[in-house]
Recover the amino acids of this structure.
């Protein structure tokens, strides 16, 4: 895929932020009559970790899905590494990219889903090998070594021949992370990666994500885990009703939120967490 | 005096069996040929039917409506007699394979479509995020999983097809039923011949049904 400022497609090319990996500009998304995203602007620099928080239905997941082009923006656009996602210039006109061109861009983006979405007919190691073998045409032996290394990294080398149904939710999600990493992505998107997990399994997944953050991966994390967001993120983005309402470094946003909507949301979340903590 | 028909049938049994088994072989040929053709057609049109673009979906839907809405016997007549009128003379066997193939293809399009749609959307999205195109995702991720869903109706289709090929006797394809009718014309032993024909159909369809069940059980393993 194209690198940084000299994006190959030429739609932009005038990027004022040469180091920005993701740029979302005036993004709107409607499903029928419902507007899910309204005029969203967002920048993510290479190596940055951005946590997106906010109430359910605020558009966090849709924003992530638009960045991955799993949803087509109604208006506005998304650029990754200087290249527009889903559109290109042909003879001075903006046209839609082909299936294959979008697929090429997606090889640089890893996505971890709330429901894991492991391939149930393949073992853990086969899940991790599939992308490199089928898409990147990596030799099987090489892909296998890489997959094993990644499974070791997420602490699951001993489960490499297990089918997903034999794994716990936390284990499945860790395999899913390894599967994404096998494509050596520049950007990782986490869509509520721990929301479907039993409480005692959340920690093991967060640890893997924390490790990844330490290694310098660019991460966009939609999450309800406030403690984790505060810990790991360089920046917190608060969304409500399809808009980015508030934005800032974690200590600022969590300690002294300026926007009343952020204050209300954080108060509600922290109260709930305090109550949960009181239960012996 | 004419001897007892059962005694006559017994005497003629080797001859009758050899004639009928030749027919059974043709029945199997028609079944196998039409089955393969129907699977190919069904796969292509099921993929068209699940495409995001409207035109391919419309083409596939029209195909299904037309070929499912006309009796297969009528389709056989059109292919065998109708095309001959237009100068395309097919031998009965080929006509039967094509007729049952395109008719079955319409049925299997719907079976395969249901199979594809039964696979959770998250599966193809995960494939997309590994950099796969839609076709790759369907081929590598969705279809292998859909096989499990599709196998029972596919098995039913095969067993049904085996029996339905009796209709090919109407275009003089020398299959089992056609041979039976010819034998009855020659021997007047209608009860005995048709019982024998029935027994041979059973001898083919029961193992087929059994095989499908075995396959189902085997593929069902390794996944809840």
């Amino acid at each position: 895929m194209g690198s940084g400022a000299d994006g190959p497609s030429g739609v932009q090319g005038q990027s004022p932020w040469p180091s920005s990996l993701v740029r979302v500009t005036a993004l709107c998304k409607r499903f029928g009559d419902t507007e899910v995203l309204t005029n969203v602007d967002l920048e993510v620099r290479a190596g940055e970790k951005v946590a997106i928080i906010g109430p359910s239905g605020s558009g966090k997941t849709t924003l992530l899905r638009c960045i991955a082009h799993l949803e087509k923006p109604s208006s506005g656009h998304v650029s990754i590494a200087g290249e527009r996602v889903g559109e290109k210039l042909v003879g001075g006109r903006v046209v839609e990219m082909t299936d294959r061109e979008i697929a090429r861009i997606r090889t640089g983006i890893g996505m971890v889903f709330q429901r894991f979405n492991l391939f149930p007919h393949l073992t853990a190691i086969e899940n991790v090998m599939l992308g490199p073998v089928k898409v990147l045409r990596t030799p099987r032996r090489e892909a296998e070594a890489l997959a094993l290394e990644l499974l070791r990294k997420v602490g699951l080398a001993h489960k490499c021949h297990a089918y997903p149904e034999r794994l716990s939710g936390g284990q499945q999600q860790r395999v899913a992370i390894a599967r994404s990493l096998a494509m050596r992505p520049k950007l990782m998107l986490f869509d509520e990666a721990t929301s479907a997990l039993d409480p005692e399994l959340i920690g093991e997944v967060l640890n893997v994500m924390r490790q990844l953050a330490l290694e310098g991966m660019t991460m966009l994390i939609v999450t309800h885990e406030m403690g984790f967001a505060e810990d790991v993120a360089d920046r917190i983005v608060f969304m409500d009703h399809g808009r980015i309402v508030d934005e800032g470094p974690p200590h600022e946003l969590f300690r002294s939120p300026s926007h009343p909507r952020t204050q209300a949301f954080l108060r509600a979340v922290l109260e709930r967490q305090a109550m949960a903590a009181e239960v012996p | 005096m004419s001897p007892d028909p059962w005694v006559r049938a017994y005497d003629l049994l080797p001859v009758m069996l050899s004639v009928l088994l030749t027919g059974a072989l043709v029945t199997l040929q028609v079944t196998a040929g039409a089955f393969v053709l129907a699977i190919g057609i069904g796969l292509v049109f099921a993929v068209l039917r699940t495409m995001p673009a409207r035109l391919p979906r419309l083409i596939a839907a029209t195909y299904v409506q037309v070929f499912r809405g006309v009796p297969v016997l009528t389709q056989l007549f059109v292919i065998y007699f109708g095309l001959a009128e237009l100068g395309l003379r097919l031998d009965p066997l080929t006509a039967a394979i094509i007729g049952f193939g395109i008719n079955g293809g319409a049925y299997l399009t719907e079976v395969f479509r249901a199979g594809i749609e039964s696979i959770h959307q998250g599966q193809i999205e995960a494939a997309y995020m590994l950099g796969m195109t839609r076709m790759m995702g369907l081929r590598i991720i969705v279809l292998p999983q859909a096989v499990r869903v599709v196998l029972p109706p596919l098995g039913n289709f095969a067993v049904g097809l085996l029996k339905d090929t009796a209709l090919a006797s109407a275009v003089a394809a020398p299959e089992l039923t056609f041979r039976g009718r010819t034998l009855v014309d020659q021997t007047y032993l209608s009860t005995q011949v048709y019982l024998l024909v029935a027994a041979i159909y059973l001898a083919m369809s029961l193992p087929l049904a059994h095989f499908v069940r075995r396959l189902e059980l085997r593929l069902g393993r390794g996944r809840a």
